[in-house]
Amino acid sequence: MLDFNTIINNIHSDLKNEVVKGVVASYIPELSKQDVNHFGIFMQHMDGRTFMAGDANVPFSIQSISKVLTLSKAIAFEDNNLWTRVDVEPSGNPFNHLSLLELENGIPRNPLINAGAIVVADILCTQFKNPKADFLQYVRDISNDQSINYNYKVAASEKLTGYNNYAAANLLKSFGNLHNDVEVVLDFYFHQCALEMTCAQVAKAFYVFANSGKCVNNKQHVTVSQAKRINAIMLTCGFYDESGEFAFEVGLPGKSGVGGGIVALLPNKFVITTWSPGLNAKGNSLIGMQALEQFTTQTNLSIF
Ligand SMILES: NC(=O)CC[C@H](N)C(=O)O
């Protein structure tokens, strides 16, 4: 039987002293305050066991990890109608790339790049009565944790420097693929990105995708087929123009965020979250990717 506790703690102690840790995101001023030395790992096994190392219980800004959570709610609302407004192909481009969006008539390549997530945010602004409060409640419910909250300073900070996302939203609006006001949708989007969660809370939230759509409380939030599709999109698009590399190195569906978090899962087996704020050139956590590569290589647990 695999000794997950030893494996995770060895990976943590091997990597925590790496000299090259990547660079903390600075284009959102609040995020630049993060200490590059934070490093946490949390594993939630489907048999109920949990394993952790380092800063697994320190909250961080989940940023683009939230795109999977909004996607799951939009799929639950819209099912296959969603795919008329956003595609499911990897973009091969950075998360904030705009020229493909113009070339492809305002249909974003997938829901996990910024433009696609802004369309998903627009759908939730239409479907929810109180978008920010209702989405927060959804995240609290699937995580079984009522203490999760937005970091309002991070949301305000991103809004101040959010020129690229304003450009994406305006482009979507010009193609008729944004139904609500740009300001309303981006206010929601900046807040979803500013959700603050620990590695442990993120792993609990993503349990729903490893468990065929049923959350930790055994409530069905998306169908089995919808959970399959969400995992497929994470596998092919979860790491922007490094999605191929992540599949090659780690071999699990997953999602990263510029706060330095990564969550990955093996359906019916486990969810694992890492947090190390230093990013590589593609905007993914440098140490987090190495930790997950070591984890699946040492355990032989991947979808392949
Ligand atoms: N890759 C990310 O985590 C990007 C999210 C960030 N809030 C942005 O919109 O730029």
Describe the structure.
- The chain is an alpha+beta fold.
- It has one domain: 3-Layer(aba) Sandwich (Beta-lactamase).
- The protein is built from twelve helices and eight strands.
- The strands form two sheets. Strands 2-1-8-7-6 form a five-stranded antiparallel β-sheet, with helices on both faces. It has a three-stranded antiparallel β-sheet with strand order 3-5-4.
- Strand 7 and strand 8 form a beta hairpin.
- Helix 5 crosses helix 9 and helix 6 packs across helix 8.
- The chain starts with a helix and ends in a 5-residue tail after the last helix.
- The model has no long low-confidence stretch (mean pLDDT 97).
- Bound molecules: glutamine (GLN).
- The site of glutamine has 11 residues, from loops.
- It is an enzyme of class 3 (hydrolase).
- One of its GO terms (molecular function) is glutaminase activity.
- Its EC number is 3.5.1.2.
Task: Please give a quick description of this structure.
This protein has 304 residues and is of the alpha+beta class.
Tally of individual helices: 12
Query: Spans with pLDDT under 50 lasting ≥5 residues?
Result: none
- Within the largest sheet, what's the order of strands? 2-1-8-7-6
CATH architecture: 3-Layer(aba) Sandwich
Name the CATH superfamily assignment: DD-peptidase/beta-lactamase superfamily
Strand tally: 8
Instruction: Give the helix/strand class.
Output: alpha+beta
Beginning-to-end CA distance, first to last residue: 20 Å
What are the bound molecules?
A: glutamine
Instruction: Please write the CATH class name.
Output: Alpha Beta
Give the helix proportion (percent range): 40-55%
The dominant shape is globular
CATH fold assignment: Beta-lactamase
Give the C-alpha Rg: 18 Å
